[in-house]
Design a protein that fits this description.
The protein has about 450 residues and is α+β, with helices and mostly antiparallel strands. About 35% of the residues lie in helices and about 20% in strands. The longest helix has 21 residues, at about 230-250. The chain is globular, with a radius of gyration of 22 Å.
Length: about 450
């Protein structure tokens, strides 16, 4: 992929600055392996230079663990002198940051090589996804995708390091309700939630609904579908940042941690995917009887076959695996069904034209680019190899299937590292970097001693 023409980019920058004379600063953003947004803040006058020449950031930004420390075993740190690569703007991502007291804009960036033709840097998660998307271009297909993102509002003050629900701005009480879709709970935090939707509109993020989820102060934002997998993931990354900052303006905090509270629902990141034939403009999954649609079946078959190896990307943290449990509608086996929320891959069938795949496994702690890469790899693998799925599940899948997906990070990383199929879609060099980072985090976690261990063993053994 060549770098977009500078003249087009400069026109975008100049028009934005002309329309927003109040803007003083611009945040240049790039999402790391964990989906954590990093970058630089520049003054307004420097924006056109960024569009002309880019900015330098170290390649090691994609070798950071969850604490922001470089994992040297990736080879992207001291081994290469912590060298820079060059980052260029992603077109159409320049927008206001509505939460800032000093008018500030933001711009998403993507990393490229400095030498040669400036090819995209292989370890940028957005580039990982772009390479998978290219395979669908070769099939004459456009990916249509939409995310559903769950999160908790939490108090800015933790209790002994643990989160607690925030006090309602209306009643002053901490919520206890677990009633899903309850409108009254939306009213308790109406100002914050409405500001999230309005902020999304300002930033061009297609967030069109917020629903109350099944735990105290837990909510879900639904995004409208877009015919661009990369853009859908851009929106998901920016939406998380928006939610965090809007909540902070309302004297609350947020968490996208997969399982912040024992005994309560975790935070999921569901994605809806359909495929559009570029010649006809029609959804190839569209059908009055989805079970008879060969393209849909094969796509589902590929996703189910690659699901165990994809778990490292879908559930990338130690905490990710605490989210699983039948009572919380988190599937623990590769399964599919029609209008069935107990399965891993749900096929909504409300309208023949809108038949699609809803992937329900990933947690909100997943990097959207890597999550999408793994799912699309499975879909492409299924389509090109005509993989037939298992029989669709009717009723409660938890009563019919034993847990078979990896249920811990170490097993998930082993599955990913050994997958010959995913290695055809995602560079083995990148998989090595991802596994190295996550194994480093896992090693540190396993060397820690929890409070529960002290409670159990300190005076009893």
């Amino acid at each position: 992929m060549s770098v977009p023409p500078r003249a087009v980019q400069l026109q975008e920058a100049n028009e934005f600055l002309k329309e927003h004379p109040e803007v003083q600063f611009v945040d240049l953003l790039i999402a790391d392996m964990n989906g954590v947004v990093r970058g630089k803040r520049i003054e307004r006058a420097s924006l056109t230079k960024v569009y002309e020449k880019g900015i330098n950031l170290p390649a090691s930004i994609f070798a950071l663990d969850i604490n922001g420390s470089t994992v040297e075993s990736t080879g992207l740190g001291l081994d290469i002198g912590d060298a820079d690569r060059i980052c260029y703007p992603i077109p159409s991502t320049l927008s206001d940051e509505p939460w800032q007291k000093r008018p500030t804009a933001q711009l998403l960036m993507t990393m490229h090589e400095v030498e040669g033709d400036g090819e995209p840097f292989f370890a940028d998660p957005r580039e990982v996804l772009r390479r998978v998307v290219e395979k669908f271009d070769d099939l004459g297909l456009t990916i249509c995708a939409a995310f559903e993102l769950e999160f908790y509002l939490i108090d800015q003050e933790n209790i002994n390091g643990r989160p607690q629900p925030p006090r309602s701005p209306i009643s002053g009480k901490r919520p206890q309700s677990t009633q899903v879709y309850l409108i009254d709970d939306l009213d308790e935090y109406a100002d914050c939630l409405q500001d999230i939707l309005e902020g999304a509109k300002v930033q061009g993020i297609p967030a069109d609904a917020i629903v109350k989820e099944s735990a105290p102060a837990q909510f879900e934002v639904n995004m409208h579908h877009v015919e661009d997998a990369l853009k859908a993931c851009d929106y998901a990354v920016l939406l998380k940042r928006l939610i965090k900052n809007i909540a902070y303006d309302h004297e609350m905090d947020t968490t996208f941690m997969a399982k912040p509270y024992p005994g309560q629902a975790g935070n999921g990141l569901h994605v809806h995917i359909s495929l559009i034939d570029k010649k006809t403009g029609k959804n190839i999954f569209a059908s009055d009887d989805p079970e008879q649609n060969a393209a849909l079946r094969h796509a589902v078959g590929g996703v189910l076959e690659t699901m165990p190896a994809s778990m490292g990307f879908l559930c990338p943290n130690v905490n990710s695996y605490r989210r699983f449990g039948a009572q919380f509608y988190v599937p623990n086996a590769p399964s599919w069904g029609l209008d069935n929320r107990t399965v891993a891959v749900r096929v909504p069938t409300g309208s023949a034209d809108a038949v699609r795949i809803e992937h329900r496994v990933a947690g909100a702690d997943a990097n959207p680019y890597l999550m999408m890469s793994a799912i699309l790899a499975g879909i492409h693998h299924g389509l090109t190899n005509k993989i037939e799925p298992s029989t669709p599940i009717e009723g409660n899948s938890y009563e019919q299937l034993e847990q078979s997906l990896p249920n811990n990070l170490r097993d998930a990383l082993r599955e990913l590292d050994d997958s010959e199929v995913l290695a055809k879609y995602i560079s083995p060099d990148y998989i090595d970097i991802f596994v190295a980072c996550k194994e480093s985090e896992l090693e540190e976690f396993e060397h820690s001693i929890s409070d529960l261990e002290y409670n159990w063993y300190l005076h009893t053994v």
